[in-house]
Design brief:
CATH architecture of the largest domain: Alpha-Beta Complex
Helix content: 40-55%
Number of helices: 10
Number of strands: 10
CATH superfamily of the largest domain: Aminoglycoside phosphotransferase (APH), C-terminal lobe
CATH class of the largest domain: Alpha Beta
Structural class: alpha+beta
Largest sheet: 5 strands, antiparallel
Strand order of the largest sheet: 1-2-3-5-4
Strand content: 5-15%
Distance between the termini: 51 Å
Number of domains: 2
Order of helices and strands: HEEEHEEEHHHEEEEHHHHH
């Protein structure tokens, strides 16, 4: 991670207004390094987020930024004339050379956004309205990008939600057991292996390709501080071609349980049905017109699948020695895996009821 004097030099590479007055680490993402930069312009503070793209995860940062350039420009055009439009989509801040990103002397790729004031993200939904707002935001995001003209977006992480390949990677990690951790993770390994059959379901369902966010955690939507309304979808690194249900499934995973993603007390992990209902209603209110009947039929299942997929990713990373996700304690990725698998069990208990609800709402 860069030191403050390096950050000052990096900030100078972007077209920020005024003089830089402060830096601070920002957010708690697993992948990129993010800083909040405050500048003084005409006596008033102006804030920006400055991010280093993790090239170990995103092997082609240029491809990531090409997607983000196109997506943010398209969203801005779709929002032309809308009230408060500058707070409803991320705005890239150009570098001094006119490009939308900067490569430093070490070859690291940096980008900057104008900070959206008087709004925030939350780690967990505390009300049905928050869940509705987030789901509506992601549904609207998909709907707005449905009109993005060709060419096809870059795949920033190939096969990101290809669950069978994720499962194969887990099996490889189990076989290699490079850190000798498989013995401790036996219950989690058994849990995954007994559910191998669900991995291919969505890929074999003949669903249409969409432009999707692919990381629809609840904390990737900004809610207005005053009204609670959803304003802006953030964290666009994984926006690329995919299935609409990848996005809805991740909403179920990250919104319906009150527990943190790495909660160690598994008694706190539950599937709150009222929040699931709010997600369905919010999402379909924005995306319902362009989704096919077949896509709607798999809404409930997608929550189980993406939760399971995320769990096996955490488990594989734990077995591989924590090479992908940032960890903050020993066994952190195993804790994350356990919360996912506990939620899968909770969804399985409610799955029939969830399907009935979707059928009722979708019509």
């Amino acid at each position: 991670m860069k030191e403050p004097h390096d950050l000052r030099d990096l900030a100078a590479a972007f077209q920020f207004q005024g003089e830089v007055s402060a830096f601070a680490p920002f957010g708690n993402g697993h992948i990129n390094d993010t800083y909040l930069v405050t500048c003084q312009a005409a006596g008033a503070p102006v804030r920006y987020t400055l991010q280093r793209i993790n090239a170990q995860v995103f092997r082609s940062p240029a491809a990531v930024m090409q997607n983000i350039e196109r997506v943010t420009a398209h969203l801005a055009a779709r929002l032309a004339g809308a009230p408060d439009r500058d707070r409803r989509a991320l705005r890239l801040v150009p570098a001094r050379d006119g490009s939308n990103w900067h490569e430093d002397a070490q070859g690291e790729t940096w980008r900057a956004y104008r900070f959206i004031e008087n709004a925030r993200s939350y780690e967990t939904a505390t009300s049905v309205d928050q869940a509705f707002q987030a789901a509506q935001a992601f549904g609207r995001f998909q709907q707005q990008l449905a009109s993005l003209p060709a060419p096809r977006l870059n795949e920033t992480i190939p096969d990101f939600h290809h669950t069978p390949k994720r499962f194969a990677a887990l099996e490889q990690a189990i076989a290699a057991d490079v850190k000798g951790r498989a013995k401790v993770a036996c219950p989690e390994i058994e849990f995954a292996l007994t559910r191998r059959s669900i991995a291919r379901v969505l890929l074999e369902a003949n669903l249409p390709e969409r432009i999707t966010h692919n990381d629809t955690k609840f904390n990737n939507v900004l809610l207005d501080d005053a009204t609670g309304e959803s304003l802006c979808v953030i964290d666009l690194d994984t926006v690329m071609p995919g299935l609409a249900l990848y996005d809805f499934g991740d909403m179920v995973r990250t919104t319906t349980s009150p527990a943190a993603e790495d909660e160690q007390d598994l008694r706190k992990v539950t599937m709150q049905f009222p929040l699931f209902e709010a997600l369905v209603r919010g999402y379909l209110s924005a995306a319902g017109e362009f989704l096919t009947k077949r896509e709607k039929e798999f809404l409930a299942f997608s929550g189980k699948l993406i939760t399971f997929e995320t769990g096996i990713r955490f488990l594989a990373d734990h077995l591989n020695g924590d090479t992908y996700f940032k960890i903050h304690r020993e066994g952190h990725n195993l804790d994350r895996c356990r919360t996912q698998f506990k939620l899968v069990e909770a969804i399985e208990r409610e799955e029939e009821k969830m399907n009935r609800l979707v059928e009722e709402i979708a019509g």
